[in-house]
Design goal:
By secondary structure, the chain is an alpha/beta fold. The protein has two domains: about 1-120 and about 280-309, Rossmann fold (3-Layer(aba) Sandwich); about 125-275, 3-Layer(aba) Sandwich (Rossmann fold), CATH 3.40.50.10750. Helices cover about 45% and strands about 15% of the residues. The protein is built from twelve helices and ten strands. The strands form two sheets. It has a six-stranded mixed β-sheet with strand order 7-6-8-5-4-9, sandwiched between helices. A four-stranded parallel β-sheet has the order 2-1-3-10, with helices on both faces.
Length: about 300
């Protein structure tokens, strides 16, 4: 059974409720039918008839109370709640849904803002970040072609602590959703001191933070992508590493490299890219590329449901 089929089956084993606010996007509407038909999750397609006017007013007032210290006035809050995205996020906040998936017709920034402001950031991690599940056909590397890439959607230039938290959150998601042991590679243009620069020293310090904060995780770096993935290259460049040549969680040093890499892998290798999956929030939320397919909506919903189990 391939990775995608396993995800759908795992989601179906313990049904959770996923709210889809982009009811007027034909891909989302079609995905909702498939999710229901295959029993992947319970779906709330947030059509106008499902939005209660009194609840909307209450959510608006609650959002205003949450955000007024950040400079949001009541009129601004009311304008935001003209978009079902915010109603969906507040449903999740109150436990009326177990997860939400959006982004087919919203930017990542808009979707992330609604999720972060309404759902809130987990105090254990203290950052909001994201990852992609990448499924690469006919690929012998990673976990039989399955990888997690992070961060490809949220933090432009993570500092050392943020990068460590990105790695830890991505690894935890990997273990829960994909059921394999995460092996984290902190990626760079250098492998274990083959080049010298401050940014490489920062990666080494990040590795130290990961080992301090989550000593149970397998992590190593800095390393080049070939050393991370290819056993023969790892034997030459980094033979002492327990991760080199076997990495399945790839941590990019910044958003430029992460976003470019996931899109490059998706388009040139024909990979499935599920995400961005938001990490570090109190409840599971997922974004979608505005170029997503119906299957992308279905499978992001499956992943979100598994994370809520």
């Amino acid at each position: 059974m391939d990775t995608i089929a396993k995800l759908r089956k795992k989601a179906a084993a313990n049904l959770k409720t996923i709210v889809l606010p982009e009811y007027n996007d034909v891909r989302v509407a079609e995905a909702a039918k498939i999710i229901e038909k295959e029993g992947i999750a319970k779906v709330i397609l947030l059509t106008p008839d499902k939005i209660d006017a009194r609840e909307k007013e209450r959510y608006t007032q609650e959002y205003y109370q949450i955000r007024k210290e950040k400079g949001v006035d009541l009129e601004t809050a009311k304008k935001l709640f003209e978009d079902p995205l915010y109603y969906a996020a507040m449903m999740l906040r109150e436990g009326k849904a177990d997860g939400f998936v959006a982004g087919a017709s919203h930017t990542t920034a808009d979707t992330a803002r609604a999720a972060i402001h309404c759902v809130g950031i987990d105090e254990k991690l203290l950052i909001a970040t994201s990852c992609f599940i990448m499924v690469v056909p006919h690929c012998p590397y990673g976990e039989k072609g399955t990888f997690v890439f992070a961060d490809c959607g949220i933090i432009p230039e993570p500092n050392k602590r943020q990068l460590a938290c990105i790695a830890i959150a991505a690894a935890r998601m990997t273990a829960k959703v994909l059921d394999f042991i995460p092996r984290i590679a902190l990626l760079s243009y250098s492998t274990k001191g083959s080049a010298r620069a401050k940014e490489l020293d920062d990666i080494v310090e990040t590795l130290g933070l990961i080992r301090q904060m989550a000593p149970d995780l397998l992590a190593d770096g800095e390393m080049q992508i070939d050393a991370a993935l290819v056993p023969e290259v790892a034997q030459i460049k980094y033979p002492a590493s327990t991760v080199a040549g076997k990495a399945n969680v790839l941590i990019f040093p910044d958003l430029n490299s992460g976003n470019i890499s996931y899109k490059l892998t998706q388009r040139l290798a024909g990979a499935r890219a599920l995400g961005p999956l938001f990490l570090g929030l109190k409840k599971p939320c997922s974004d979608l590329s505005r170029g997503c397919s119906v299957d992308d909506v279905v499978d992001c919903s499956a992943v979100t449901a598994i994370r809520a189990q």
